[in-house]
Design brief:
The protein is α/β, with parallel strands linked by helices. Helix content is 39%, strand content 21%. It has helices spanning 19-34, 60-67, 86-103, 122-136, 190-200, 218-235, 246-255, 261-279, 299-306, 322-332, 335-338, 360-367, 372-381, and strands at 4-9, 40-45, 48-53, 73-82, 106-113, 141-142, 149-155, 160-163, 167-168, 180-184, 204-211, 238-244, 284-286, 313-314, 383-388. Helix 4 (122-136) links the parallel strand 5 (106-113) and strand 6 (141-142). Helix 8 crosses helix 9. The radius of gyration is 26 Å and the shape is elongated. Bound molecules: adenosine-5'-triphosphate and magnesium ion.
Length: 396
């Protein structure tokens, strides 16, 4: 084969006894993600995933693009494999990277020899290949400190590989090694980023969205499904549970003191999400909450909303600035959809003066008039499940 991808493992290399399991999961994920692009051989050796096309008609560009969205790999290289000899390595560099070198003003060669039986050291390989390249490209200056272009040579067990600069991988841990989480997904900027961040830790996700028709529109629902679909580009398919929330919001509006509307509503969200989590093997809830961002995101408010569940509520964005969250949203491609101007059920019936420092017993008193169990039962029964996934082959 003329070209192969090497995906370098991230934190997995630090794992002890679990390493095999993590590698197995990653290999399985990469295989699945490469499927739409043709027949690829995927194997792991020396802390690296090898992705090798088995036939000429593989879609290498599509496969390469998809590799950028696989958690567990920190850096990605497109390489030319060759025989483990200086002549073969030199010829591979000329054939594979010659054009890049023609465009550069200076260069260096960086080598890594993990096959210790190879006669030259890493430095020896770099000097030898660098010397030959300098001769054949007279315009090129060797600059070991600030080269315009770096040629990489890796002498590994199976073969030698030459490549140009690596690209960053998605990082994190392979999807599926960290259990499952139920993410409360709204149509805002924050919760899709929270979903992405928890997924990055190897966690599979199930989403829960609260939908208050007719206060929130069909378009708002479509927007949430689109956000979920964008996140699946990283974490694979997921189910979005769309919970009919209108009756609960109306019951709160009609029966509870206004200053507690948001808190009581959020306690219902947590309870329902907890129940859905239990039905789908999820060990935690995840929200896009961020300390101090709004009245319901103070420590006291979060204590009151968290008090109704008995599993951890993770808030990956808790200490981030909005700017940092927006930067991630832009990078993962959710920002544009998040800023579409459709309302969320959180903005329906919002109190003029919400309680920012509530205590639990006063909130419990304020919601005591509601038949919590019956309202929850009906909302659970009024839940639509939608499976979403990114279509890798079509890039949509
Ligand atoms: P976001 O940008 O994620 O909407 P936010 O800053 O607007 O967050 P809130 O609207 O107070 O904050 O919501 C806090 C968190 O509660 C959200 O990040 C999300 O996890 C959850 N949440 C809010 N509204 C909904 C909803 N309609 N369905 C599901 N979860 C929701
Ligand atoms: Mg919101």
């Amino acid at each position: 084969m003329n070209e192969i991808f090497l995906l370098k493992l991230g934190e997995i290399v630090l794992k002890g006894q679990n390493k095999k399991q993590f590698e197995g999961k990653l290999r399985q994920n990469v295989r699945r993600r490469m499927k739409p692009f043709g027949d690829f051989d995927v194997y792991i050796l020396q802390s690296t995933v090898y992705v090798e096309p088995r036939s000429e008609d593989c879609d290498l560009e599509g496969a390469w693009e998809a590799c950028h969205y696989i958690f567990g790999a920190v850096s990605l290289c497109r390489c030319r494999p060759c025989e483990k000899s200086l002549d073969a390595i030199y010829q591979a560099v000329e054939a594979y990277l010659g054009e890049d070198l023609e465009c550069a003003a200076s260069f260096k060669v960086e080598s890594k020899r993990s096959d210790k039986s190879f006669p030259l050291t890493s430095i020896g390989i770099s000097q030898e290949i660098g010397g030959r390249l300098a001769e054949s490209h007279p315009h090129l200056k060797v600059d070991v400190h600030h080269p315009a272009y770096t040629v990489y040579v890796e002498v590994r067990d199976l073969a030698a590989y030459v490549h140009g600069p690596a690209e960053p991988g998605a990082g994190g841990l392979p999807t599926g090694v960290g259990g499952r989480a139920a993410v409360l997904l709204s149509g805002g900027i924050d919760s899709p980023v929270a979903a992405y961040m928890i997924a990055k830790r190897g966690v599979e996700i199930e989403c829960v969205h609260f939908f208050s028709y007719p206060y929130t529109s069909e378009q708002a629902k479509e927007k949430v499904l689109e956000l979920a679909r964008l996140v699946t580009r990283y974490c694979g398919q997921m189910t979005v549970n769309i919970v009919g929330f209108t009756e609960i919001q109306e019951a709160i509006r009609d029966n509870c003191p206004e200053e507690y509307f948001t808190l009581i509503m959020r306690r219902f969200m947590m309870r329902i999400a907890r129940r859905i989590a239990g039905n789908h093997g999820c060990g935690c809830l995840v929200t896009g909450e961020n300390l101090g961002q709004v009245a319901s995101q103070t420590m006291e408010a979060m204590a009151v909303t968290g008090a109704v569940v008995d599993i951890p509520v993770f808030t990956p964005l808790i200490g981030m600035d909005k700017e940092e969250i927006v930067t991630i949203a832009r990078r993962i491609g959710t920002l544009e959809t998040s800023i579409l101007p459709y309302e969320d059920c959180c903005t329906v019936f919002t109190p003029k003066h919400p309680k920012t420092k509530p205590n639990l017993s006063e909130v419990e008193r304020a919601e005591a008039c509601l038949d919590v169990e019956a309202l929850m039962e009906r909302a659970m029964a009024n839940t639509e499940k939608v499976m979403v996934r990114y279509d890798e082959a079509d890039g949509v």
